[in-house]
Design brief:
About 75% of the residues lie in helices and about 0% in strands. It is mainly alpha-helical and about 110 residues long.
Length: about 110
């Protein structure tokens, strides 16, 4: 199951009671989500770098392969952007849920 789907399931779970996810689980999934976001950003960087490499050889290449490769890279970039946008959205919601759970489970030491 994808990290995105796992986070969505946690967000759909009750906020309190026995069926509520633990703070440890929320924090672990938040970490997994951030790791996935970093991986997607790295993939975007690789795609951008490859687009630059292909574009820099455009004068030397006039074959159909150039257009096909650029089209493929552009599609991969759009897909990575969509995935990253979705992941960042659910990570923001998970971060808020984790903070709320932490406030509920951490004793108030100022009292």
């Amino acid at each position: 199951m994808s990290v995105l789907r796992q986070i969505e399931e946690l967000l759909d779970a009750p906020a309190d009671g026995e069926a509520a996810p633990t703070l440890a689980l929320l924090e672990a999934k938040l970490t997994d989500g951030y790791a996935q976001a970093l991986a997607l950003e790295a993939e975007r960087s690789r795609i951008e770098r490859r687009i630059g490499e292909v574009a820099s050889t455009a004068e030397e290449r006039s074959d159909l392969g150039l257009a096909e490769e650029l089209t493929s890279l552009a599609g991969r970039m759009r897909s990575a952007d969509r995935d990253l946008e979705k992941l960042r959205s659910v990570l923001g919601r998970l971060q808020a849920r984790t903070r709320a759970t932490r406030r509920q489970t951490t004793p108030d030491l100022t009292a």
